[in-house]
Amino acid sequence: MPPLLLSTACCPPAAWFRLVIAHEVVFIDQYEHFTKQTFRNRYSILGPNGRADLIIPVENGRTPQQPIREVRIAYHTEWQRNHWRWLLAAYNNSPW
Q1: Which among 3, 5, 26, 54 is least buried, having the fewest CB atoms inside 10 angstroms?
Q2: What are the residue ranges spanned by the domains of the chain?
Q3: For the whole model, what pTM was predicted?
Q4: By C-alpha distance, which of 82, 74, 42, 36 is closest to 58?
């Protein structure tokens, strides 16, 4: 089976992991361009009030044709605390 080249993802969907498991050699593309509003810096969870879209803010991902390796996470906001609270609210009392 040929090597697999995948895009980056902060919390990829299950199909992404199925591809990783099915291939012996997997590469993550560091030369791709950062595309806004994709799963590269966002993910969805099923919260207590329905679907919640969680976004990891980036500092320099607004430039067109920005290579993914040059994009940096913005730590000046409290996004980590907010994500943790959402995850606790959604899954803390779940049976699995």
Answers
A1: 3
A2: 4-91
A3: 0.79
A4: 74
Distance CA 77, CA 66 (A): 22
Q: Is the dihedral of CA 53, 59, 64, 69 positive or negative?
A: negative
Write the single-letter amino acid at 60.
N
How far apart (Å, rounded) are the C-alpha atoms in residues 74 and 41? 11
Distance CA 21, CA 84 (A): 28
Which DSSP helix (H) or strand (E) runs through 96? none
Q: Residues 58, 13: contact at Cβ < 8 Å?
A: no
Residue 30, C-beta contacts closer than 8 angstroms, at least 6 positions apart: 8, 67, 68, 69
Q: What is the pLDDT along the chain (96 residues), one digit of tens a residue?
A: 789 999 998 888 899 999 999 999 999 998 898 888 888 899 999 888 899 999 999 987 677 788 888 889 999 999 999 999 999 999 988 887
Tell me the residue ranges of DSSP E strands in 41-82: 42-47, 50-55
